[in-house]
């Protein structure tokens, strides 16, 4: 099977895990803090405000709590977005308000976001679709003017930039995903960054049971009372902190990340070259000048009458494709409905092709050739 997503792991990651085993310290510790520091340096962030957590979804739930969102509040987010963002909003009693997206880029424009704002809007969440930054700089400026919090769900954008500035650095709060299908993987895991110092300190507490100190061991001899095992709880939290075992994998992956992204860029270019003259296949728009994509997704757009049939043909040939993310304004749990033509068009036409750094040139040619053949056959059948 040629998978649509697939991590790249090897001896270096195994050696890092072995070192953690040998240290006898698997939990939140020195490697976690090192991963936070090195990731912060990678993204141009402040290490003290950067927290390794169990998932980007945990970061979304923390963001909603940190911003104090609840009943009567609205949060605008693109309909083509991951379900975790809408769940975090709705679980707090706030209302997710879905904005439209450009049907070709699948990212919201600043105009899409602005149309969805109401007096009840308290925050905006953006996703960088497939790793392409989109209008994040303009959306950030809009949020500043309107005094709205901006949350960047940078799950797809671990190496994406706008004019040299990392995605995730535009928002008040940002999170990245390192789950098993991402570019940089730790099995499960994510990184959270909080711009405001006090909110960042609160995020540290909420991520570990509301405790002022993560453990008695870390507090011993550091200015705390002589009974360092006693608890200081300011508010109710949970346990969503990362650990040294997964952080050790993340440190190796972070060092390999530039090579991963370079290979994905090559693959994207090869797909575009091989499919440039394919009738009935629309390629993704070029990445705008000044922007760098992580190339997490690579997609084509097909006639909706044949899109699902083409996906089935490819699966029969051992090529797994998919579509992400299903339009959330069509999910009854969030209220459903609404007229968002760009999101609906994108959901009917878009197909994600296999995209990961483990693909060989032969794999890419197989996918492109199989796609062309299936589209030709399905179009001929539909025309007949």
TrEMBL record:
Task: Check the record and name the Gene3D superfamilies matching this protein.
Answer: Aspartate Aminotransferase, domain 1, Type I PLP-dependent aspartate aminotransferase-like (Major domain)
Required co-factor?
Answer: pyridoxal 5'-phosphate
Q: Which residues form a coiled coil?
A: none
Which superkingdom heads the taxonomic lineage of this protein's source? Answer: Bacteria
Pfam family, any one: DegT_DnrJ_EryC1
Q: Which GO terms describe its molecular function?
A: transaminase activity
Q: Which UniProt keywords apply?
A: Aminotransferase, Pyridoxal phosphate, Transferase
Q: Which PANTHER family match?
A: DTDP-4-AMINO-4,6-DIDEOXYGALACTOSE TRANSAMINASE (PTHR30244:SF34), TRANSAMINASE (PTHR30244)
Similarity comment text for this entry? Belongs to the DegT/DnrJ/EryC1 family.
What is this protein called in UniProt?
DegT/DnrJ/EryC1/StrS family aminotransferase
Q: Whose protein is this, by species?
A: Micromonospora thermarum
